[in-house]
Give the backbone structure.
Amino acid sequence: TIFPLLVSSNFFAVVSLRQAAEMLGRIHHDSESAAQSSALADEVEHALREYAVVQLPGAGPGYAYEVDAYGGRNCMDDANVPSLLALPYLGAVKRDDPLYRNTRRWALSLRNPYYFKGAAAEGLGGPHTGLNMIWPLGLIVQALTSADDEEIRRCLDLLQKTQAGTGFIHESFYKDDSKKYTRSWFAWANTIFGELILTTFEKQPQLLN
């Protein structure tokens, strides 16, 4: 990270704090701790609205990837979860939230320094594996957070075509040749891919034909 406040992780913290508040109240009957957890969630959410919203080039107001609350910001997104793209998946924002929609449009464009397009595919990558390496995890999250059947179908098609004959989801692959990949077995991505298949089967089974 460049700046100390990772925006997507703080959104995730808000969700987790509210879940903790509910469990503290309903299961442990600890109303004081539940109230403290809820208050902290509200405080963090307010700070996100105040400090994390920036003007994204070509997309309008949206969320920075990292901020320092003094005006410093890092505008990018990364395929790892939590990410800005994954905010609806995490339960942090609604899929149709205007700030999220702008952020999503920007993140899934070449304006994002970690969005790559090549002969094999296009999608989110990240600084962990270097430039021009697309993360299937990003394609999975893109599909899970989409309301567009064609976008979901396209992501599923790319995931199928870029597994390099191994039958597994990899950590990343080179944008022009999916046979150049990292980590032949990446349990996290394979697990969330299973979630994508189950979710699609339940909601849009025709996309799996």
